[in-house]
Amino acid sequence: MFKIGTRGSHLATTQTGHVRDALGEHGHAAELQIVTTPGDLSQAPVERIGVGVFTSALRDALFHGEVDIAVHSFKDLPTADEPRAHMIIPTREDSREALIARDGLTLAELPEGARVGTSAPRRVSQLKATRPDLDIRPLRGNIERRMSYVEDGELDAIILAYAGLVRGGYGDRATEVFAPEVFMPAPAQGALAVECRSDDAVAREAIDKLIDAAATAESTAERAVLARLEAGCTAPVAASAVFDGAGVTLRAGVFALDGSRQLVEEAQGTDPAELGRKVAEALLERGAADLIE
């Protein structure tokens, strides 16, 4: 039986449970094993502590043989290759961004000066570009904790990944789900990364059965933008790709934190990684490096 490492949050165990069930459908028994990370014990915003504390703890457990498989939110992984790991991308959840607001309001309907919670620079910059009047507040905690700020009246609204809401069973809480052309998501948002040790032939064969071609092509193109820009997952960089079975259409953007400037490029291609690099080069030519810094 495979041991699958996961963080202990409701969202993490739910999405890892989907991987466990998918392996079971292919005849591979597996069970979840909770891996506690330093980030789970911190009250600081993830942008301060860094998502690396979550992913590195899972990878340490994998490489030390404590678990056979690790499941990550793909957008949280470093863009550099990890030769000790064999990674695949299974079916992707909806990549869009979502608003949860009091009284069922949409972003346009929020009153002037409304308090909106998010700590992600990418979201902050796009919010300021769209609604410079908003009072943007830092946000920390799991999905349930974040939603409670709206329920308790401390915030008027929050921005979250729609994928997390859907996986957690909270999709109906969203008062608005944004088209990527309106509010661009993080590269590889909604995608999972499933890893095993590169020298574990049995686990490699098992997880390879879960590979999804569309999710792999789309997230590869999006993360290639991030890699070429040499930007971390908390940088004000966004990307959204669509795979049509033959090629990929990629749209990516880099934003000024104060909302004053937005650089957006779009292109099509059949090689996802090369397409991502091409779009990133176009952004760099327009001054993206200055905005990232």
UniProtKB/TrEMBL annotation:
Which Pfam families does the entry mention? Porphobil_deam, Porphobil_deamC
Q: Which residues carry this modification: S-(dipyrrolylmethanemethyl)cysteine?
A: 233
Could you tell me the keywords of this UniProt record? Answer: Porphyrin biosynthesis, Transferase
Q: Which reactions is this enzyme annotated as catalysing?
A: 4 porphobilinogen + H2O = hydroxymethylbilane + 4 NH4(+)
What are the EC numbers?
A: 2.5.1.61
What InterPro entries does the annotation carry?
HemC, Porphobilin_deaminase_cofac_BS, Porphobilin_deaminase_N, Porphobilinogen_deaminase_C, Porphobilinogen_deaminase_C_sf
Coiled-coil stretches, from where to where? Answer: none
Listed GO cellular component terms?
Answer: cytoplasm
Under Gene Ontology molecular function, one entry of this record is:
hydroxymethylbilane synthase activity
Q: Where is each Porphobilinogen deaminase C-terminal domain found?
A: 217-284
Work out whether the entry's keyword set contains Transferase: yes
GO aspect biological process, one term: protoporphyrinogen IX biosynthetic process
Q: What is its cofactor?
A: dipyrromethane
User: Which stretches make up the Porphobilinogen deaminase N-terminal domain?
Assistant: 3-203
Quote the record's cofactor note. Answer: Binds 1 dipyrromethane group covalently.
Task: Name the enzyme's class.
Answer: transferase
Assembly and interaction partners = Monomer.
Please give the family membership noted in the entry: Belongs to the HMBS family.
Its UniProt miscellaneous note says: The porphobilinogen subunits are added to the dipyrromethane group.
Q: Mind telling me which NCBIfam families this protein's record contains?
A: hemC (TIGR00212)
What does this protein do, in the record's words? Answer: Tetrapolymerization of the monopyrrole PBG into the hydroxymethylbilane pre-uroporphyrinogen in several discrete steps.
What is the protein named?
A: Porphobilinogen deaminase
The upper taxonomy is: Bacteria, Bacillati, Actinomycetota, Actinomycetes, Mycobacteriales
Q: Which gene encodes it?
A: hemC
